[in-house]
Design brief:
Elements (H helix, E strand, L loop, with lengths): L1 E10 L2 E11 L4 E5 L6 H8 L7 E6 L2 E2 L5 H7 L1 E4 L11 H13 L14 H11 L14 H13 L5 E5 L7 H17 L3 E5 L3 H7 L2 E6 L2 E6 L1 H5 L2 H8 L4
Parallel strand pairs: 3-8, 3-9, 6-7, 7-8
Antiparallel strand pairs: 1-2, 1-4, 4-5, 9-10
The structure holds adenosine-5'-diphosphate and magnesium ion (MG).
The site of adenosine-5'-diphosphate has 10 residues, from helix 1.
């Protein structure tokens, strides 16, 4: 579905991502794990056009998307969320999803016509799927952190993606919120037959839902494989999973 070959990105001479090759199989759940500062968010930004790699290439469904703009990559079918919540805080929950639907679907020549009722049914259906229907009229800012992250997922889904990239989808959530969010995510991925690539600091979540795990350390992939393979990899245990913490 997605294939990165040797992608690299440095900031002022510091190699945040130092030549990473990663293949994400279609229809599967793949996790990228690694300590803070390993380069996970930078890698995602390189895959979605928010950063342009210094070298290497990215292909999505066989098409070269290296250096393409984020909106173009989104249109091709990659939806994403960010490590830090990225919603319109002053809009209602409904308004956030509606805005995302309009941004993705509306033809340019319709842009300035009235929009209040546009995609109402689609927006409500999406909120229903997210378990946010009863909060449709709430201002996004007033939602719990967990619900704001769910709303972010809804915004990503509004572009009707074939693939989702989620950067720490449960960041800042309580244990209960995390469990609910993962259950929701698993259901949505299965229902829509999405390919999912995500980063996550909670190893319980990772080993529960990922079929493939890639381990980043200091900008490089040090292991890649099934959860069992990664769990037993001596290098991974040394730098990440082990170490007595
Ligand atoms: P992770 O998401 O795994 O915690 P990041 O990709 O956010 O890691 O960061 C990897 C490294 O690159 C860190 O050392 C970080 O400080 C650095 N970095 C990330 N973005 C920038 C930037 N825009 N400018 C300078 N350094 C950056
Ligand atoms: Mg990060």
């Amino acid at each position: 579905m997605l294939e990165a070959k040797g992608i690299a990105k440095s900031f002022n001479g510091f190699a945040a991502v130092g030549g990473v090759s990663l293949a994400v199989p279609a229809g599967g759940v793949t996790a990228v794990i690694g300590p803070n500062g390993a380069g996970k968010s930078t890698l995602f930004n390189l895959l979605t056009g928010h950063l342009v790699p210094d070298s290497g290439s990215v292909a999505f469904q066989g098409r070269d998307i290296t250096g393409a703009a984020p909106h173009a990559i989104c249109r091709m079918g990659i939806g994403r969320s960010f490590q830090h919540t990225n919603i319109f805080k002053k809009l209602t929950v409904f308004g956030n999803v509606q805005a995302a639907l309009i941004a993705h679907r509306r033809k340019a020549h319709q842009f300035w016509t009235r929009s209040e009722g546009l995609y109402r049914d689609e927006a409500l259906a999406l909120l229903e799927a997210l378990g946010l229907a009863d909060k449709a009229d709430a201002v996004a800012d007033s939602l719990s952190h967990g619900n704001q992250k769910q709303l972010e997922l809804g915004i990503a889904l509004a572009s009707d993606p074939a693939m989702l990239l989620l950067d720490e989808p449960t960041a800042g959530m309580s244990a209960t919120e995390t469990r609910e969010a993962i259950r929701l995510l698993e259901r949505i991925v299965a229902d829509r037959q999405l390919t999912l690539l995500f980063t996550e600091h909670d190893m319980e979540v990772v080993f529960q839902i990922a079929q493939k795990i890639a381990v980043l350390h200091q900008g490089r992939l040090i292991a890649e494989g099934t959860p069992a393979e990664v769990r037993n990899d001596p290098e991974v245990r040394r730098v990440y999973l082990g170490g007595g913490h």
